[in-house]
């Protein structure tokens, strides 16, 4: 791997992921002086995003919307409108977020989702950069340890089966053409001081980004410090009994090289009687912390109490995580 280097200036930080975990970290990082880039998965096929994806043959907008809302410097009242979700009784608009519809309109207007998002980011006064990992919707595929296969993020998540490995293909026919991330995505990784992976669902939010060939290549080539934020809870069926080191091993194996340099690990304990298991039915148990095995994966453990208990669930404290990321960026 290319030798790393220390940061002597405003750090360039790239956060790769999707789902609900990515905005939590971005919300913490936006409070610091940095050059921030969010790279977002486009393999989601559920909910409003999935409907728009199928109907308009576009990149699913939901994760992009949440990141833009997080990084926007517009008044909170305008962000609330952007995030507004229509009621179930609203027939053709039921369950759609207004922001999803706006992103769909910008993609159509600019004839390109990537360009449409860049124009909208300026309108919304976004701090940093918001980049979909690909300019086309991707189909997620999973091979399970029982020898079966499934396609589609929603179906893979709902299967609650142990995943051996995942890969992505383009949604559009022919599905044989090479998937490539836009040049700005690759350059952001190559020019970064720190690349952050996660937190989020390992196989459905983080790894789909890394399965785009030129993204994996950029991660192998970059001089950035690559940091994985270990999940607090395992995901039912997907990462049951995974330690934080097991997550790192899966990332390295999918990328094809030991790329993770540091792992941000939580020491806070989730009370046994706190989680509402019906509400948060996709999670299983708290991830076991194994610093020695993380070191065996070639990564440095970065440890702290990062636990935020709210809404009967266990989450990362975005401010605490951001502080550790900034410390990693500043390390000589």
Automatic annotation (TrEMBL):
Listed InterPro entries: CofD, CofD-like_dom_sf, Gluconeogen_factor
Taxonomic superkingdom: Bacteria
Coiled coil: none
Main subcellular localisation: cytoplasm
Annotated localization: Cytoplasm
One Pfam family named in its UniProt record: CofD
Keywords, sorted A to Z: Cytoplasm
Function noted in UniProt: Required for morphogenesis under gluconeogenic growth conditions.
Family: Belongs to the gluconeogenesis factor family.
Protein name: Putative gluconeogenesis factor
């Amino acid at each position: 791997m290319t030798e790393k280097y220390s940061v002597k200036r405003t750090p360039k930080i790239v956060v790769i992921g999707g789902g609900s975990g990515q905005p939590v970290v971005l919300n913490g990082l936006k409070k610091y002086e940095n050059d921030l880039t969010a790279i977002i998965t486009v393999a989601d096929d559920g909910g409003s995003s999935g409907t728009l994806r199928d109907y308009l043959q576009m990149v699913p907008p939901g994760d992009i919307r949440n990141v833009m809302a997080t990084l926007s410097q517009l008044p909170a009242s305008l962000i609330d409108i952007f995030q507004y979700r229509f009621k179930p009784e609203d027939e053709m608009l039921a369950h759609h977020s207004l922001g999803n519809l706006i992103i769909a309109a910008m993609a159509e207007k600019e004839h390109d989702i990537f360009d449409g998002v860049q124009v909208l980011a300026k309108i919304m006064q976004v701090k940093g950069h918001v980049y979909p990992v690909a300019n086309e919707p991707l189909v997620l595929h999973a091979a399970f340890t029982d020898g079966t296969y499934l396609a589609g993020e929603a179906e893979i998540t709902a299967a609650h089966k142990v995943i051996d490995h995942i890969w992505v293909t383009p949604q559009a026919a022919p599905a044989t053409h090479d998937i490539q991330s836009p040049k700005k995505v690759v350059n952001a990784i190559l020019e970064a001081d720190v690349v952050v992976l996660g937190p989020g669902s390992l196989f459905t939010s983080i790894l789909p980004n890394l399965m785009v060939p030129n993204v994996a290549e950029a991660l192998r080539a970059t001089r950035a410090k690559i940091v994985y934020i270990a999940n607090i809870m395992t995901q039912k069926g997907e990462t049951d009994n995974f330690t934080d080191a097991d997550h790192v091993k899966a990332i390295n194996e999918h990328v094809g090289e030991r790329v993770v340099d540091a792992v941000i690990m939580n020491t806070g304990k989730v009370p046994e009687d706190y989680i509402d298991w019906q509400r948060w039915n996709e999670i299983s148990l708290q991830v076991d912390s194994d610093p020695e095995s993380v070191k065996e994966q070639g990564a440095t453990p970065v440890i702290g109490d990062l636990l935020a208990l709210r809404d009967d669930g266990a989450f990362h404290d975005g401010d605490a995580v951001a502080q550790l990321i900034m410390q990693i960026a500043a390390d000589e």
